[in-house]
Design goal:
Nucleotidyltransferase, domain 5, 2 domains, 39% helix, 20% strand
Length: 397
Amino acid sequence: MKVLVINCGSSSLKYQVIDSETEKVLAKGLCERIGIDGRLVYQPAGSEKIITESAMPTHKEAVRMVLDALVDKENGVLSSLSEIGAVGHRIVHGGEKFTESALITDEMLRKVEECNELAPLHNPANIIGINACRELMPGVPMVGVFDTAFHQTMPAKAYMYAVPYECYQKYGVRRYGFHGTSHSFVSKRAAEVAGIELTNSKIIVCHLGNGASVSAVLNGKSVDTSMGLSPLEGLVMGTRSGDIDPTAVQYIAKKEGLDFDGVMTLLNKKSGVLGISGVSSDFRDLLAAQDKGDKRAKLAVDMFVYRVAKYIGAYAAAMNGVDLIAFTAGVGENNGFVRQEICRYLGFIGVEIDSKANEVAGEERKISTDNSMVKVYVIPTNEELAIARETVRLATE
Ligand code: ADP
Protein backbone atom coordinates (compact mmCIF):
# COMPACT_ATOMS: atom_id res chain seq x y z
CA MET A 1 0.00 0.00 0.00
CA LYS A 2 1.14 3.57 -0.69
CA VAL A 3 0.76 5.81 2.32
CA LEU A 4 0.76 9.60 2.37
CA VAL A 5 2.23 10.88 5.63
CA ILE A 6 1.33 14.44 6.62
CA ASN A 7 2.81 16.62 9.34
CA CYS A 8 0.86 19.86 9.32
CA GLY A 9 1.86 23.06 11.14
CA SER A 10 0.17 26.45 11.23
CA SER A 11 1.86 27.74 8.05
CA SER A 12 3.67 24.68 6.76
CA LEU A 13 2.95 21.09 5.78
CA LYS A 14 5.55 18.35 5.45
CA TYR A 15 4.70 15.22 3.51
CA GLN A 16 6.10 11.89 2.35
CA VAL A 17 4.71 9.09 0.24
CA ILE A 18 5.93 5.73 1.48
CA ASP A 19 5.45 2.34 -0.14
CA SER A 20 4.56 0.20 2.85
CA GLU A 21 5.75 -3.04 1.23
CA THR A 22 9.29 -1.85 0.51
CA GLU A 23 9.23 0.90 3.18
CA LYS A 24 10.88 3.16 0.59
CA VAL A 25 10.08 6.87 0.28
CA LEU A 26 8.66 7.55 -3.20
CA ALA A 27 8.51 11.33 -2.83
CA LYS A 28 8.74 13.93 -0.09
CA GLY A 29 8.68 17.66 0.46
CA LEU A 30 6.89 20.50 2.11
CA CYS A 31 4.56 23.44 1.60
CA GLU A 32 5.74 26.63 3.23
CA ARG A 33 4.27 30.06 3.83
CA ILE A 34 0.67 28.81 3.70
CA GLY A 35 -1.67 31.79 4.17
CA ILE A 36 1.18 34.19 3.31
CA ASP A 37 2.13 33.51 -0.31
CA GLY A 38 2.97 29.84 -0.80
CA ARG A 39 5.88 27.64 -1.86
CA LEU A 40 5.87 23.94 -2.69
CA VAL A 41 9.00 21.85 -2.43
CA TYR A 42 8.58 18.47 -4.13
CA GLN A 43 11.25 15.82 -4.40
CA PRO A 44 10.69 12.48 -6.11
CA ALA A 45 13.08 9.76 -4.83
CA GLY A 46 16.47 9.96 -6.53
CA SER A 47 15.77 13.34 -8.17
CA GLU A 48 16.43 16.97 -7.48
CA LYS A 49 14.00 19.16 -5.54
CA ILE A 50 11.41 20.98 -7.61
CA ILE A 51 10.31 24.31 -6.15
CA THR A 52 7.06 26.00 -7.21
CA GLU A 53 5.87 29.35 -5.92
CA SER A 54 2.09 29.46 -5.96
CA ALA A 55 -0.70 31.00 -3.91
CA MET A 56 -1.75 28.85 -0.93
CA PRO A 57 -4.37 30.89 0.93
CA THR A 58 -5.31 27.85 3.04
CA HIS A 59 -4.11 24.33 3.78
CA LYS A 60 -6.61 23.00 1.27
CA GLU A 61 -4.72 24.57 -1.65
CA ALA A 62 -1.48 23.29 -0.14
CA VAL A 63 -2.78 19.70 -0.01
CA ARG A 64 -4.17 20.05 -3.53
CA MET A 65 -0.76 21.16 -4.82
CA VAL A 66 0.92 18.18 -3.17
CA LEU A 67 -1.62 15.79 -4.71
CA ASP A 68 -1.21 17.41 -8.14
CA ALA A 69 2.58 17.10 -7.88
CA LEU A 70 2.28 13.42 -6.95
CA VAL A 71 0.31 12.59 -10.13
CA ASP A 72 2.09 15.09 -12.40
CA LYS A 73 2.74 13.55 -15.87
CA GLU A 74 6.41 14.47 -15.88
CA ASN A 75 7.60 14.25 -12.27
CA GLY A 76 4.79 12.43 -10.47
CA VAL A 77 5.35 9.13 -8.66
CA LEU A 78 1.73 7.92 -8.82
CA SER A 79 -0.34 7.21 -11.93
CA SER A 80 -3.50 8.23 -10.08
CA LEU A 81 -4.54 9.36 -6.61
CA SER A 82 -6.43 6.10 -6.12
CA GLU A 83 -3.01 4.53 -5.51
CA ILE A 84 -2.92 6.22 -2.09
CA GLY A 85 -4.36 3.53 0.17
CA ALA A 86 -4.29 5.54 3.40
CA VAL A 87 -3.12 8.80 4.94
CA GLY A 88 -1.25 9.06 8.25
CA HIS A 89 -1.36 12.35 10.15
CA ARG A 90 0.98 13.40 12.92
CA ILE A 91 -0.99 14.88 15.81
CA VAL A 92 0.93 16.57 18.61
CA HIS A 93 -1.32 16.23 21.65
CA GLY A 94 -3.67 13.38 22.46
CA GLY A 95 -3.93 14.23 26.16
CA GLU A 96 -5.12 11.27 28.20
CA LYS A 97 -7.71 10.44 25.54
CA PHE A 98 -5.34 8.64 23.17
CA THR A 99 -3.06 5.91 24.41
CA GLU A 100 -2.31 4.82 20.84
CA SER A 101 -2.86 5.80 17.22
CA ALA A 102 -6.47 5.95 16.05
CA LEU A 103 -8.52 5.83 12.85
CA ILE A 104 -9.78 9.31 12.03
CA THR A 105 -13.56 9.70 12.29
CA ASP A 106 -15.81 12.64 13.19
CA GLU A 107 -16.00 11.40 16.76
CA MET A 108 -12.24 10.88 16.99
CA LEU A 109 -11.67 14.44 15.74
CA ARG A 110 -14.01 15.80 18.40
CA LYS A 111 -11.83 14.10 21.01
CA VAL A 112 -8.69 15.60 19.45
CA GLU A 113 -10.33 19.03 19.58
CA GLU A 114 -10.88 18.53 23.30
CA CYS A 115 -7.07 18.36 23.63
CA ASN A 116 -6.54 21.64 21.76
CA GLU A 117 -6.18 23.71 24.91
CA LEU A 118 -3.18 21.60 25.87
CA ALA A 119 -1.40 22.38 22.57
CA PRO A 120 -2.97 25.58 21.24
CA LEU A 121 -0.21 26.18 18.68
CA HIS A 122 -0.08 22.66 17.27
CA ASN A 123 -3.33 20.69 17.51
CA PRO A 124 -5.57 23.16 15.65
CA ALA A 125 -3.05 23.19 12.76
CA ASN A 126 -2.98 19.38 12.72
CA ILE A 127 -6.78 19.30 12.52
CA ILE A 128 -6.86 21.83 9.67
CA GLY A 129 -4.51 19.56 7.70
CA ILE A 130 -6.67 16.52 8.43
CA ASN A 131 -9.85 18.29 7.31
CA ALA A 132 -8.20 19.50 4.09
CA CYS A 133 -7.16 15.91 3.27
CA ARG A 134 -10.59 14.50 4.14
CA GLU A 135 -12.21 16.98 1.78
CA LEU A 136 -9.86 16.25 -1.09
CA MET A 137 -9.61 12.48 -0.55
CA PRO A 138 -13.05 11.34 0.59
CA GLY A 139 -13.26 7.66 1.45
CA VAL A 140 -9.51 7.17 1.95
CA PRO A 141 -8.83 5.79 5.44
CA MET A 142 -6.87 8.19 7.62
CA VAL A 143 -5.04 7.60 10.88
CA GLY A 144 -3.86 9.99 13.60
CA VAL A 145 -0.52 9.21 15.26
CA PHE A 146 0.10 11.12 18.47
CA ASP A 147 3.38 12.48 19.86
CA THR A 148 2.08 11.88 23.36
CA ALA A 149 0.56 8.39 23.04
CA PHE A 150 3.70 6.31 23.70
CA HIS A 151 4.19 8.03 27.06
CA GLN A 152 0.69 7.25 28.33
CA THR A 153 2.17 4.19 30.09
CA MET A 154 4.04 6.44 32.55
CA PRO A 155 3.02 5.77 36.16
CA ALA A 156 1.32 8.58 38.10
CA LYS A 157 4.40 9.13 40.26
CA ALA A 158 6.27 10.11 37.07
CA TYR A 159 3.59 12.15 35.33
CA MET A 160 2.09 14.16 38.20
CA TYR A 161 3.28 17.64 39.15
CA ALA A 162 3.25 18.29 42.88
CA VAL A 163 0.62 21.04 42.61
CA PRO A 164 -2.92 20.86 44.08
CA TYR A 165 -4.53 17.65 42.81
CA GLU A 166 -7.52 19.63 41.54
CA CYS A 167 -5.31 21.20 38.85
CA TYR A 168 -4.94 17.70 37.42
CA GLN A 169 -8.58 16.75 37.92
CA LYS A 170 -10.06 19.96 36.57
CA TYR A 171 -7.59 20.93 33.85
CA GLY A 172 -5.46 17.89 33.07
CA VAL A 173 -2.30 19.58 34.33
CA ARG A 174 0.28 16.76 34.29
CA ARG A 175 3.31 15.63 32.32
CA TYR A 176 2.46 14.09 28.93
CA GLY A 177 5.80 13.88 27.10
CA PHE A 178 6.42 14.27 23.37
CA HIS A 179 8.52 12.77 20.54
CA GLY A 180 6.67 9.55 21.44
CA THR A 181 6.71 8.21 17.88
CA SER A 182 10.49 8.57 17.83
CA HIS A 183 11.07 7.12 21.32
CA SER A 184 8.89 4.15 20.42
CA PHE A 185 10.52 3.56 17.03
CA VAL A 186 14.08 3.93 18.33
CA SER A 187 13.64 1.78 21.45
CA LYS A 188 12.14 -1.07 19.38
CA ARG A 189 14.82 -0.83 16.72
CA ALA A 190 17.61 -0.61 19.33
CA ALA A 191 16.46 -3.82 21.02
CA GLU A 192 16.26 -5.50 17.62
CA VAL A 193 19.78 -4.55 16.47
CA ALA A 194 21.33 -5.22 19.86
CA GLY A 195 19.65 -8.64 20.02
CA ILE A 196 17.96 -8.03 23.37
CA GLU A 197 14.37 -8.89 24.29
CA LEU A 198 12.32 -5.67 24.21
CA THR A 199 9.89 -7.07 26.78
CA ASN A 200 12.77 -7.67 29.18
CA SER A 201 14.89 -4.57 28.71
CA LYS A 202 15.87 -1.22 30.22
CA ILE A 203 16.48 1.31 27.46
CA ILE A 204 17.16 5.05 27.62
CA VAL A 205 16.46 6.93 24.38
CA CYS A 206 18.10 10.34 23.88
CA HIS A 207 16.25 12.19 21.09
CA LEU A 208 18.61 15.14 20.60
CA GLY A 209 17.44 17.47 17.86
CA ASN A 210 16.45 21.08 17.91
CA GLY A 211 13.73 19.93 20.29
CA ALA A 212 15.23 17.33 22.61
CA SER A 213 13.97 14.77 25.12
CA VAL A 214 15.11 11.66 26.96
CA SER A 215 12.89 8.70 27.81
CA ALA A 216 13.12 5.69 30.08
CA VAL A 217 11.67 2.63 28.32
CA LEU A 218 11.19 -0.35 30.60
CA ASN A 219 10.22 -3.64 28.93
CA GLY A 220 9.13 -1.71 25.82
CA LYS A 221 6.96 0.80 27.71
CA SER A 222 7.72 4.44 28.46
CA VAL A 223 7.97 4.92 32.24
CA ASP A 224 9.34 8.45 32.24
CA THR A 225 10.32 11.20 29.83
CA SER A 226 11.81 14.65 30.16
CA MET A 227 9.17 16.78 28.40
CA GLY A 228 6.05 17.64 30.37
CA LEU A 229 2.71 19.35 29.87
CA SER A 230 4.39 20.97 26.87
CA PRO A 231 7.70 20.40 25.07
CA LEU A 232 9.31 23.14 27.17
CA GLU A 233 10.29 20.95 30.14
CA GLY A 234 13.45 18.92 30.50
CA LEU A 235 16.63 19.25 28.50
CA VAL A 236 18.35 22.45 27.40
CA MET A 237 17.24 22.63 23.74
CA GLY A 238 18.02 24.66 20.62
CA THR A 239 15.90 27.60 21.73
CA ARG A 240 13.99 26.24 24.78
CA SER A 241 15.16 26.60 28.36
CA GLY A 242 14.08 23.17 29.61
CA ASP A 243 13.77 22.82 33.41
CA ILE A 244 13.66 26.15 35.24
CA ASP A 245 12.45 27.45 38.60
CA PRO A 246 9.06 29.13 37.91
CA THR A 247 10.13 31.93 40.24
CA ALA A 248 12.80 32.88 37.69
CA VAL A 249 10.00 33.17 35.13
CA GLN A 250 8.04 35.56 37.35
CA TYR A 251 11.19 37.56 38.11
CA ILE A 252 12.16 37.90 34.42
CA ALA A 253 8.59 38.89 33.52
CA LYS A 254 8.56 41.62 36.17
CA LYS A 255 12.00 42.96 35.29
CA GLU A 256 11.41 42.93 31.53
CA GLY A 257 7.78 44.07 31.72
CA LEU A 258 6.56 40.97 29.93
CA ASP A 259 3.13 39.35 30.11
CA PHE A 260 2.62 35.55 30.12
CA ASP A 261 2.83 35.26 26.34
CA GLY A 262 5.95 37.40 26.23
CA VAL A 263 7.78 35.40 28.83
CA MET A 264 6.71 32.09 27.25
CA THR A 265 8.15 33.29 23.92
CA LEU A 266 11.39 34.13 25.72
CA LEU A 267 11.53 30.60 27.19
CA ASN A 268 10.51 28.80 23.99
CA LYS A 269 12.23 30.79 21.26
CA LYS A 270 15.07 32.82 22.76
CA SER A 271 16.51 30.49 25.38
CA GLY A 272 18.36 27.15 25.28
CA VAL A 273 21.77 26.98 23.60
CA LEU A 274 20.80 29.97 21.44
CA GLY A 275 20.05 32.13 24.47
CA ILE A 276 23.19 31.11 26.33
CA SER A 277 25.61 31.35 23.41
CA GLY A 278 24.09 34.29 21.57
CA VAL A 279 25.52 32.48 18.53
CA SER A 280 23.03 29.93 17.19
CA SER A 281 20.61 27.17 18.04
CA ASP A 282 22.44 24.91 15.57
CA PHE A 283 25.07 22.62 17.06
CA ARG A 284 27.32 22.86 14.01
CA ASP A 285 27.62 26.63 14.55
CA LEU A 286 28.09 26.20 18.29
CA LEU A 287 30.92 23.72 17.95
CA ALA A 288 32.62 25.89 15.33
CA ALA A 289 32.37 28.89 17.69
CA GLN A 290 33.59 26.80 20.63
CA ASP A 291 36.62 25.70 18.56
CA LYS A 292 37.44 29.36 17.96
CA GLY A 293 37.48 29.96 21.71
CA ASP A 294 33.96 31.38 22.18
CA LYS A 295 33.33 30.89 25.91
CA ARG A 296 29.54 31.24 25.83
CA ALA A 297 29.24 28.74 22.99
CA LYS A 298 31.29 26.31 25.08
CA LEU A 299 29.11 27.00 28.12
CA ALA A 300 25.97 26.29 26.05
CA VAL A 301 27.37 22.95 24.85
CA ASP A 302 28.54 22.07 28.39
CA MET A 303 25.09 22.84 29.82
CA PHE A 304 23.35 20.80 27.11
CA VAL A 305 25.63 17.81 27.68
CA TYR A 306 25.42 18.02 31.48
CA ARG A 307 21.60 18.11 31.48
CA VAL A 308 21.38 15.03 29.21
CA ALA A 309 23.83 13.15 31.45
CA LYS A 310 21.80 14.06 34.56
CA TYR A 311 18.61 12.72 32.98
CA ILE A 312 20.34 9.49 31.97
CA GLY A 313 21.52 9.08 35.57
CA ALA A 314 18.00 9.74 36.85
CA TYR A 315 16.43 7.23 34.45
CA ALA A 316 19.00 4.57 35.30
CA ALA A 317 17.77 5.02 38.88
CA ALA A 318 14.11 5.02 37.79
CA MET A 319 14.56 1.62 36.09
CA ASN A 320 17.08 0.28 38.62
CA GLY A 321 19.62 -0.09 35.83
CA VAL A 322 20.04 0.35 32.11
CA ASP A 323 20.94 -2.15 29.38
CA LEU A 324 21.12 0.18 26.43
CA ILE A 325 21.36 3.89 25.66
CA ALA A 326 20.27 4.98 22.17
CA PHE A 327 21.14 8.33 20.58
CA THR A 328 18.92 9.70 17.83
CA ALA A 329 17.78 12.84 15.89
CA GLY A 330 19.96 15.57 14.31
CA VAL A 331 22.53 15.98 17.08
CA GLY A 332 22.26 12.46 18.52
CA GLU A 333 22.82 10.83 15.12
CA ASN A 334 25.46 13.15 13.70
CA ASN A 335 27.43 14.72 16.48
CA GLY A 336 30.11 12.37 17.86
CA PHE A 337 31.59 15.08 20.09
CA VAL A 338 28.34 15.66 21.97
CA ARG A 339 27.77 11.88 22.39
CA GLN A 340 31.31 11.42 23.68
CA GLU A 341 30.96 14.30 26.15
CA ILE A 342 27.65 12.91 27.48
CA CYS A 343 29.13 9.45 27.88
CA ARG A 344 32.11 10.86 29.81
CA TYR A 345 29.71 11.32 32.75
CA LEU A 346 28.51 7.73 32.55
CA GLY A 347 31.58 5.76 33.61
CA PHE A 348 29.88 5.12 36.96
CA ILE A 349 27.30 2.87 35.29
CA GLY A 350 29.99 1.16 33.24
CA VAL A 351 29.59 2.98 29.91
CA GLU A 352 32.67 2.67 27.73
CA ILE A 353 32.67 4.27 24.29
CA ASP A 354 34.56 2.96 21.26
CA SER A 355 35.89 6.28 19.99
CA LYS A 356 36.49 5.03 16.44
CA ALA A 357 32.93 3.74 16.07
CA ASN A 358 31.66 6.97 17.64
CA GLU A 359 33.35 9.08 14.96
CA VAL A 360 31.19 7.71 12.13
CA ALA A 361 28.21 9.98 11.41
CA GLY A 362 24.59 9.20 10.71
CA GLU A 363 24.62 5.40 10.49
CA GLU A 364 22.89 2.83 12.67
CA ARG A 365 25.64 1.24 14.75
CA LYS A 366 27.00 0.26 18.15
CA ILE A 367 29.36 2.85 19.62
CA SER A 368 30.21 1.14 22.93
CA THR A 369 33.10 -1.29 23.39
CA ASP A 370 32.45 -4.99 23.92
CA ASN A 371 33.47 -4.52 27.58
CA SER A 372 30.99 -1.72 28.19
CA MET A 373 28.45 -2.69 30.88
CA VAL A 374 25.80 -0.70 29.00
CA LYS A 375 25.37 -0.98 25.23
CA VAL A 376 25.34 2.37 23.47
CA TYR A 377 23.89 2.72 19.97
CA VAL A 378 23.20 5.36 17.36
CA ILE A 379 19.76 4.63 15.90
CA PRO A 380 18.54 7.04 13.21
CA THR A 381 14.94 7.91 13.93
CA ASN A 382 12.28 7.76 11.23
CA GLU A 383 9.02 9.24 12.47
CA GLU A 384 7.43 9.22 9.00
CA LEU A 385 8.06 5.50 8.58
CA ALA A 386 6.69 4.87 12.08
CA ILE A 387 3.55 6.85 11.16
CA ALA A 388 3.21 4.93 7.88
CA ARG A 389 3.45 1.59 9.72
CA GLU A 390 0.82 2.64 12.24
CA THR A 391 -1.39 3.90 9.41
CA VAL A 392 -1.24 0.61 7.51
CA ARG A 393 -1.86 -1.37 10.71
CA LEU A 394 -5.03 0.55 11.55
CA ALA A 395 -6.28 1.06 7.98
CA THR A 396 -6.15 -2.65 7.21
CA GLU A 397 -7.49 -3.91 10.56
P1 ADP B 1 14.25 19.07 14.64
O1 ADP B 1 13.64 17.91 13.86
O2 ADP B 1 13.87 19.11 16.09
O3 ADP B 1 14.15 20.40 13.96
P2 ADP B 1 16.77 17.80 14.03
O4 ADP B 1 16.56 16.44 14.57
O5 ADP B 1 16.80 17.98 12.56
O6 ADP B 1 15.81 18.84 14.71
O7 ADP B 1 18.15 18.34 14.62
C1 ADP B 1 18.66 19.61 14.35
C2 ADP B 1 20.05 19.70 15.00
O8 ADP B 1 20.85 18.63 14.48
C3 ADP B 1 20.82 20.98 14.73
O9 ADP B 1 21.33 21.52 15.94
C4 ADP B 1 21.96 20.53 13.86
O10 ADP B 1 23.15 21.23 14.15
C5 ADP B 1 22.15 19.09 14.22
N1 ADP B 1 22.75 18.39 13.11
C6 ADP B 1 22.17 17.99 11.98
N2 ADP B 1 23.07 17.42 11.14
C7 ADP B 1 24.26 17.49 11.78
C8 ADP B 1 25.60 17.09 11.47
N3 ADP B 1 25.87 16.49 10.32
N4 ADP B 1 26.55 17.31 12.39
C9 ADP B 1 26.28 17.91 13.56
N5 ADP B 1 25.05 18.31 13.92
C10 ADP B 1 24.07 18.11 13.05
